[in-house]
Predict the 3D structure of the following.
Amino acid sequence: MTNQTNDSLIAIKGLRKAFGKQKVLDGINLQVAKGETVAVLGRSGGGKSVLLKLLIRLQTPDSGSIRIAGEEITRLEEKQLNDVRKKIGFLFQQAALYDSLTVEENVAFPLRRHTNQSAAEQKDRVHELLADVEMDQDLEKLPSQISGGMQKRVGLARALALDPEILLFDEPTAGLDPITATEIGNLILELKKKRHLSAIVVTHDVQGAKAYSDRMVLLHNGTIQAEGSLAELQRSEDGFVAQFVGYGSK
């Protein structure tokens, strides 16, 4: 059942995006309430990452509405758009850390760019953020000197730097071993409880999503094919839905 509350932090209506003749998103409607985590599932190339890019306007929709914290972002000028973007933390699939910066410098980067905090205030904030993701012992290391899972943790700390209201995750456990993937999932759950953030998590990991999401959405052929808890999706009479969550739950 779609969450239709008035306090939705993200409200998407009639969202369409095509590349040439390929319809990637074909009339998506989705709302995410304050403090809610929604997992977006679907096959590779099914439009999940495109949806995230539209939400921060790295790409523009062909039609439809995207409201973030009450602002219709599809029509905003660049300056207003940047103000909205500061409310959103984004964790890229490959963490996207700056190779030449240390762990500490990577997390400090958005603070230096977007705040007037003193160097001492920035340092305190960075240490607090890295402690939250259990990476405060690796401040001076470069990204190449830490594992993929540790890079994801640092990327998450950086995404939290400006104290966003919304977090967007693009395949946060992709390429990680099962133990590290579980740790990242637990971290998402802990941060959700601690900070009461709204989040959209694009993932193939059905079991991981079950652990930290309030609701799952399954994209297929450009539309939302099913929505609800894992148990609700498993009871679906739709062949694709049953097959997708069946494979993912094994």
